[in-house]
Amino acid sequence: MKILALMASPRKEGNTDILIDKVINGAQAAGHQAEKLYLYDLNLLPCIDCRNCSSGDRFCSRDDDMQDIYPRIDAADVILFGTPLYWYGPTGPMKLLMDRLLPYSETDKLKGKRAVLIIPSAEGADACEPVVTMFRLSLDYLSVDIADVLLPTAYGKGEISGNVEELDRAYRIGAAL
Description:
Layout lengths: L1 E6 L7 H15 L3 E6 L27 H10 L2 E5 L9 H8 L14 E5 L10 H13 L3 E6 L13 H13 L1
């Protein structure tokens, strides 16, 4: 099984990154392959509603790093969406990426794929409801099943490292994929 991890935190080695790595470790221990992309390192342009992707070959005309991400999404069986909570939503790069999934709408290209949501926040799981709803509605529209959701409380860089329970849960999520 191929896993694509989309890491959308500006903090490398921060809470989101640590949790993604734990999920990947569990998945690799179960024999799966994984690749992680740092969205903050990529040039992602916003969707401009040109509608090129909703006709013909359903190709996004924006010339940016998303063109390299599309084939990785196509090849993945599971997509990890990792973002800290920013104002009750995802970070900017994750929102840009989600908007750019429009070429997959009204197709069955993502049908059967699974997703894992990893969303650490300072305020805890209840504060994550709006962003989880955004992901659920968007991924449901694209026929992607959400396999699991991890919403730990963690704010300071690397704070999650002290939470053995959440780290173990992340590992178990990966191992169960």
